[in-house]
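S.,

Sequence below, as promised.
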Amino acid sequence: MADLKHLARLIFHETLAAINIPAVMQRKVRVEGSLLHCGDIVVELRAFSKIRVVAIGKAAHAMVEGLRSTLPSDLKFEGVASAPTPPKRPLPGIKYFVGGHPIPNEESWKAAEAILQLLATSDETTLVLFLLSGGGSALTELPLDSRLTLQDVQQFYRTLVTCGAPIAAMNAVRKHVSAVKGGRLTVAAGLATKITLAVTDVPAGHESALASGPSLPDPTTSADVERVLSEFKMLEHLPAFLRSCVEESARRETPKKDDPAFTNAYFVMLMGTDDLFHPAHFCSEAKGFFTCCDNCTDDWTVEKAAAYLLDQLSVLQAANPSRPVAVIADGEVSSPVSGDGIGGRNAAFVLACVENIVGRRVAVLSAGTDGIDGNSPAAGAVADGETLARAAAAGLDPADAFRRSDAFTFFAALDDAVVTGPTGNNLRDLRILLSEPWQQP
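The prediction came back faster than expected:
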């Protein structure tokens, strides 16, 4: 069964290698004469005296580098980039910030201030390029209520990310209490022409959730936020002053699509779900697995998603009894924090599978394409039908690790953590479930 785990790791790493952001940027962004082509959007560069770049997210550095290599060397731009790591090759004209994730830090705050300062002097002769990728919600942050301190915002985020709310619900709240989310950066850019280029880790049709939609009109409302705050009892965990500020900010509506600021604002998808599924599917089939892709488990709890995807794998194996099969899934599952352990939703998903694959010729891998899983140093984890027996021999209890949100510690002890380091990308989490023909005892 070690071979199946090895193959799952290979499929994951080969998929990472295939989603190259600078290469995609060069295919979808180009300059012909004085015309800038961004997907289907074409603008006349001679109409602008200033080009400004705002890059937010885990793929910020790769996107800035891709843009620089695409544009003519004599075409200058200035801007701000906020990412979870420093750049390997800083570019002239770009101010860099190493923001916090999943909790904003001082650099997240400074990045937001720098972006607002940059956009404040924009006018009709300015072209603003927003380069957005996943993880941006915490990497750039400034509260809508100026009375709040960084410590207040950090306390609010800790409550938000551990309350068990799905990603979409958390984003709705963040947009309404932030000065730089939910379309507010587009409004801050005033009369400038704005183009958003996106590497998205959110489902198709929900692009405004990417990095909490700083440059896109917000479809969520104050009423939505009120429901989320009530359902997940967030305000009960906040001190009185912070609770009052959050409630007040939540009542202030975000910019909608009819706001004049969006008249000359455009959105271009550089990479999305298909750009992750296609290479993963290709890599899996190249290794001999009959493969199906499934993206319906987004925002499901890890237990529900694990049960469903393992069932899909069994159905696929039963329909193809003589062939190895694979189920490839993407998206973000929900894993509320219930202890003070080390780990994230990907390792928790694999942990939820361990007791259900005992003795089977099955391997399960779940990992983030950004190389980060919660508060752990890993991207995720991998397990097979022998994992439970190996854990018992090592004195490890998967149920106890799950209760304590300590999935990384569990898998690290078995040498089954998937560690890549930050990848500079962030499409979506990837789950790889492999099965070989087997006989039930």
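The domain at 2-11+274-435 is CATH 3.40.1480.10 (glycerate kinase, domain 1).

Coffee later?
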